[in-house]
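Quick question about two entries, pasted in order.
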Amino acid sequence: MCLDFYAVSNIIKAIRYWENVTCLEFENSPDVTDSEDFIEFFQGQGCYSMIGRNGGRQGISIGENCVKSGVIEHEIGHAIGMWHEQSRPDAQSYIKVESDFILPSYVSDFLQRDKDIDTLGLPYDLGSVMHYGSTAFSVDQTSKTLITRLIKGPPLSKHNWPKGDSIIYRHRNHQQGLLFR
């Protein structure tokens, strides 16, 4: 099944977002071959992408409830190598994970990844596009799965543009443009 006009429009918005805040350039290339590295958006069962450039086709699933541009921005973030902000080694200093309220199949999305994530000394960003909202994957859609430890700060459900330091990280890790179809 093909992605509808609304989904494609929001994919384009999400791509423009990353092009505006990084040095990345995306090129729509329907004739790309499987021997090239490329991103392909498809209508799947849910919202997901592998993390980082894996070589060849990099699929980004845009399921029925994933067509908002912020969700697509998040999934593109994974494709360009970003982990969830709440998975950083220092996350517990900024948030508390309420595991009892997380749907069992999503608990791993909230685990700290000490060996996988290099923060490069960048500050924790509660409003990152890569940070889950406060009720993400809640068993009842209202119980908080993430609670901020800070008195002041952006709400967890509102994402900010990446800060300058995090853009440097993205520039360092992606020196060439990305193809998509």
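Here is the second entry:
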Amino acid sequence: MHRATTSVLYPWIVYLCANIHFMFKFSYSLVFILTAFLLSGCNGNNAPASGSSDNTAQSSVAQGLNIVHVKSDSLRTGYLALAREFDRLEENLAKAQENLTADGNALQREVATLQNKAQQGLLSPNQIQAEQQRVARKEQEILQRREIALGSIQKEELELQTKFSEKVQEILQALKEEKGYDYILNQGPGTGVLISDDSHDITQLVLDRLNAAPDPVMDEASSDDEEPEE
């Protein structure tokens, strides 16, 4: 009947089938700035005056700088409120992916049905054009929903990262003032501090204060958020 119209529909079918599956790539990797706390105690007034005794110089060297470090990876994994928020984001992502994949598979089945009808000559050129436009609109709707869902999750991840970093900075500043630290460094691969003495590690102290906070930093980030549109 209209078997010749198959050649018109087939390239469109191939394109649509090749693009109907969606891949979500979501990185939970976070970068937290936890370094370079220089205190006023490290100024020129602490240097021994010219002509001072050897005992004074030796005492100054023995005292040295008060340097400690934290492990940002351990802070991220050990902060319970942050872990709960990441679990929630992961659940939202999985739910959005499941719904969008189901819709994509349904649309792919529609395309296969149209292909069969076209091959059998059951669709006129006008019908093929109308179906092309209808399916293209549905495909675009799925793509838009995917972008909205992914954008919402990424936005919330950034908010969590920012609030967590601010909370850690507040705690480190308080510890610096309480303990008289000259430097608080971030220890770990890629940080410039690869190996250090565990006696200078204050990670657990910071974690204890994070988890004991009466107002978890994540509450504000999630209180007004709704599940991403799907």
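Reply: DSSP finds seven helices and two strands in the chain. The CA atoms of residues 43 and 127 lie 82 Å apart. Hope that helps.
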